[in-house]
Amino acid sequence: AHAAQHASGGFITEGMRHILGGYDHVLFLICLLLPAVMRRTATGWQPVERLSQAIVPVAIIVTSFTVAHSVTLALAALKVLAVPSSVIEPAIAVTIMLTALDNVRPIFGGHRAIVTFFFGLIHGFGFAGVLGELDLPTVQFAWALFQFNLGIELGPLFIVTIAVTALFAFRRQAWYSNAVIRSGSAVAIVIGTLWFIDRTANLAILPF
Questions:
Q1: Which of 83, 102, 139, 184 has its CA 20 to 30 A from that of 31?
Q2: Which helix (H) or strand (E) holds 177?
Q3: Pick from 187, 19, 204, 193: which is nearest to 93 by CA?
Q4: Which pLDDT belongs to residue 205?
Q5: pLDDT averaged over the chain?
Q6: Is the dihedral of CA 59, 64, 70, 73 positive or negative?
Q7: Distance CA 155, CA 84 (A)
Q8: 180: buried, middle or exposed (CB in 10 Å: 19+, 13-18, 0-12)?
Q9: 126 phi-psi bin (left φ>0, alpha ψ -120 to 50, beta other)
Q10: CB 89 within 8 A of CB 126
């Protein structure tokens, strides 16, 4: 009955809860968003003039992430392709570290949407655990998968809306590039590194 209740609609909420409560996925999205209201120039970071100049690149990046994680979530949840969590969890930490590093020193060569797509493939395997533990009939499972993935897509939309609106309001402050982009990215690199150590050495350095 519990599975049937989820299959009838609860998986949208379950998907939203999974990504909003998944601190590593949220931190990855925030790393992507920190420079969204700025543009990198030869003389350093400069604020964008219009909100649309931030929204369009963000929409492209978030779409890349969404498409990618939808593919691997489906493959993993349907047991078509399996990658052990001992590989995926440290890899997710690496995606955070590299994305944060790109904020400070460009390493993606301007191909952030493409890189985000490949990183999204990794995160998709991380999303699959909740559904993979269920033993639902095929039809019910397909419907649950659709709803769960929809919830995962609504979660980032909530994060992106709040974050980009707040960042846009502060983009012209002299401290933005140092305090938000550089310092925020540095903190993300440290957290990502600690998560990587946690997940490869089976330690408990961080409480979350």
A1: 83
A2: none
A3: 193
A4: 77
A5: 86
A6: negative
A7: 25
A8: buried
A9: alpha
A10: yes
pTM above 0.85, yes or no: yes
Measured distance CA(119)–CA(18) in Å, rounded: 18
Q: Buried (b) or exposed (e) across 79-99, using 16+ Cβ within 10 A?
A: eeeebeeeebbbbbbbbbbbb
Max CA distance (Å), the chain: 61
pLDDT band of residue 2 (cuts 50, 70, 90) is very low
> What's the token pair of residue 72?
């691997």
CB 164 within 8 A of CB 177: no
Q: What angle do CA 1, 14, 4 make, to 5 degrees?
A: 15
> Using CA atoms, how far apart are residues 51 and 35, in angstroms rounded to an integer?
13
In this predicted model, what pLDDT tens digit does every residue of 82-132 receive, in sequence order? 889 899 999 999 999 999 999 999 999 889 999 999 999 999 888 876 666
Nearest to 160 by CA among 1, 5, 25: 25
What pLDDT is attached to residue 112? 92
Residue with structure tokens 């909740």? 130
